[in-house]
Amino acid sequence: MSKCAVGFIGIGKMGEPMAQNLVKAGYRVKVWSRSPEKVRNLTQAGAEPCATARDAARRVAALICMLSDGPTCNEVLFGKEGAIEGMERSSTLIVMSSIPVTTAVEQGRWAGERGLGYLDAPVSGGQKGARDASLAIMAGGEEKDFEANRGILKAMGHPVRVGPVGTGELAKLANQLIVASTIAAVAEALLFVERGGADPAKVQEALSGGFADSPIMRLHGRRMIERNFVPGGSAKWQLKDTRTVLAHAQTLKLSLPVASLVDSLFEAMIAHGDGELDHSGLIRELLRRNGLAVDS
Q1: Of 3, 215, 274, 290, which is the most buried if we count CB atoms within 10 A?
Q2: Is 219 helix (H, G, I), strand (E, B) or coil?
Q3: Residue 197, number of CB atoms within 10 A of its CB
Q4: Which of 144, 163, 182 is the last residue of a domain?
Q5: How far apart are the first and last CA of the chain?
Q6: What is d(CA 163, CA 169) in angstroms, rounded to the nearest whole number?
Q7: Would you name the residues annotated as active-site residues?
């Protein structure tokens, strides 16, 4: 039995494999990008290229947005491109971008005024998770909208509804706060053992399976040891997330001292020209602060 049509806007490093998995799952996927060459692989896989964002939103059960940030989402969905104007009442807008909580709440209200369902459903798992359809998907919205689109979300990963509109983004911010803080801790630990005379790769191996072990210790720790900072997740986007965490914490009247310190480390890293490097490149900033050589 054929499945429903899904629109997909935002064909980047994450969006392309996510849309590919929807095609593989049997959905009729309509795709749009400001850069037409980005949809070539998806078109070859069976997706339908669209001339405009509004075309990608027509006659679909759900429109997925996977753009870089809140202002870009708003421009494409509600502004100049006007994608939402192509959507039919009772279809669902699913924003899987990492955007501020307040932006998601605002988008949910705008969608509701047009008779549309809305989910904020950001993801974690990186490009590997996007390719493997194993993304952690944190969804905020009404139960009925989540259940109506559970199959679509499951084609891309493991969706969990965490609460009303906005709480998906709140959960993603919590995720990013943990990631950023853990990257900083792993970088300090590896620098510490290296300077103390231990083999950091062997220390990483020795810690495997213990309480200090984690995907970040295994994957990003290896990047730090090898000094391989080809970006999976760029430092500039990590700073965007820590800034968003701290801004929202202010609205909740919370002080987050660890988050503030980690934010300042990423800010300095970017100020030194490393914003395009993988966020594991934070160890370079620790090297600088200790007066140690940083490989060019």
Answers
A1: 274
A2: helix
A3: 6
A4: 163
A5: 55
A6: 10
A7: 172
What does 88-130 look like in DSSP terms, one character per residue?
A: PTT-EEEE-S---HHHHHHHHHHHHHTT-EEEE--EESHHHHH
Tokens coding 179? 């990631």
Q: 244 and 142, same structural domain? A: no
Amino acid at 179: V
Domain match, 281 and 157 both: no
Determine the Cα–Cα distance for residues 262 and 258; give it in Å rounded to an integer. 6
pLDDT tops 90 at residue 36: no
**Residues in CB range of 135: below 8 A, 6 or more apart:** 18, 123, 124, 125, 129, 156, 157, 158
**How many H helices and E strands in the chain?**
15, 9
What's at 223, amino acid-wise? Answer: R
Q: Does residue 289 sit in helix, strand or coil? A: helix
Q: Which pLDDT tens digit goes with each residue over 204-260?
A: 999 999 999 999 999 999 999 999 999 888 999 899 889 999 999 999 999 999 999
Nearest partner of 225 among 209, 249, 205, judged by Cα: 205
Total number of domains in the chain: 2
Query: Which residues lie below 8 Å from residue 134, measured CB to CB, with a gap of 6+?
Result: 125, 128, 157, 158
Q: Which residues contact 230 (CB under 8 A, 6 or more apart)?
A: 278
Residue 294 in any domain: the answer is no
Same domain for 125 and 214, yes or no, is no
User: Do 147 and 213 fall within a single domain?
Assistant: no
Q: What is the DSSP letter of 87?
A: P
- pTM, two decimal places: 0.89
